[in-house]
């Protein structure tokens, strides 16, 4: 059960993170999503290093829940993270990809891609391994990566060796343990297919960014 002090800490972290990211020039929706994930993590954590297991088990995504009508966990799980490292890696990836894509897609398409990728990843994971419980924004983030990879393919008619290595490495979570590969694959596939469907449409807005 979430304690009031952690809820207040999460709310404060959300507001502070959102303010800092907006001041840095990060696109507004990307700023909001990162701040929301940070706030929810702190609200669900009791020692800052790890989230509460009871919250993860209750609101994570699994086929067991989905088959029993708890479809809301497909969404709630996208905003939960198991530990601080999990959160940091996902938010760094969202920062980089959001900075590159939000203005070119527009915030509505960006949000649609993000949510559709996360949901598709969770559904695929639920079907492949219904007894597991997954959390994290990686399925949604992989959708953004899939979209970017599709642009390389559209404009060059090929994928470079470095891109293929990056895709394989990320899909399998750097070959780390406890990685939901099905969620990664589902999210990436949605982003890649969406990019192919948009074809060679020129972005309405270009944005210079750096790492």
Task: Please describe the topology of this protein.
Layout: H1 4-23, H2 28-43, H3 53-59, H4 63-66, H5 73-76, H6 84-105, H7 107-128, H8 138-156, H9 161-171, H10 181-198
Helix pairs in contact: 1-2, 2-6, 6-7, 6-8, 7-8, 7-10, 8-9, 8-10
CATH architecture classification name: Up-down Bundle
Q: What's the total helix number?
A: 10
Along the chain, the helix and strand elements come as HHHHHHHHHH
Mean pLDDT: 90
- What helical percentage do the residues reach? 55-70%
Q: Find the CATH topology.
A: Rhomboid-like fold
Total strand segments = 0
Strand content: under 5%
**Rough shape?**
globular
Structural class: mainly alpha
CA radius of gyration is 17 Å
Terminus-to-terminus distance: 39 Å
Quick one: CATH superfamily?
Rhomboid-like
User: Which CATH top level class fits?
Assistant: Mainly Alpha
Number of domains: 1
Most strands sheet: none
Low-confidence stretches: 203-211
How would you portray this structure in words?
By secondary structure, the protein is mostly helical. Helices cover 68% and strands 0% of the residues. It has a single domain, classed as Up-down Bundle (Rhomboid-like fold). Residues 203-211 have low confidence and may be disordered.
């Amino acid at each position: 059960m979430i304690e009031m002090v952690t809820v207040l800490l999460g709310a404060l972290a959300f507001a502070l993170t959102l303010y800092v990211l907006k001041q840095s020039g990060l696109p507004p929706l990307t700023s909001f999503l990162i701040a929301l994930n940070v706030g929810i993590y702190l609200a669900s954590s009791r020692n800052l290093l790890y989230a509460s297991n009871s919250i993860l088990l209750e609101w994570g995504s699994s086929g067991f829940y989905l088959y029993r009508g708890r479809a809301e966990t497909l969404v709630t799980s996208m905003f939960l993270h198991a530990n601080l490292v999990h959160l940091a890696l996902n938010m760094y990836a969202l920062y980089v990809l959001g900075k590159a894509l939000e203005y070119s897609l527009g915030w509505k398409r960006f949000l649609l891609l993000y949510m559709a990728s996360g949901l598709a990843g969770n559904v695929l994971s639920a079907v492949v391994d219904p007894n597991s419980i997954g959390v994290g924004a990686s399925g949604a983030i992989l959708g953004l990566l899939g979209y970017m990879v599709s642009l390389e393919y559209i404009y060059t008619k090929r994928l470079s060796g470095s891109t293929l290595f990056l895709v394989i490495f990320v899909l399998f979570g750097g070959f780390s343990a406890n990685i939901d590969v099905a969620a990664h694959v589902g999210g990436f596939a949605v982003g890649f297919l969406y990019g192919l469907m948009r074809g060679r449409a020129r972005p309405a807005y270009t944005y210079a960014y750096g790492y």
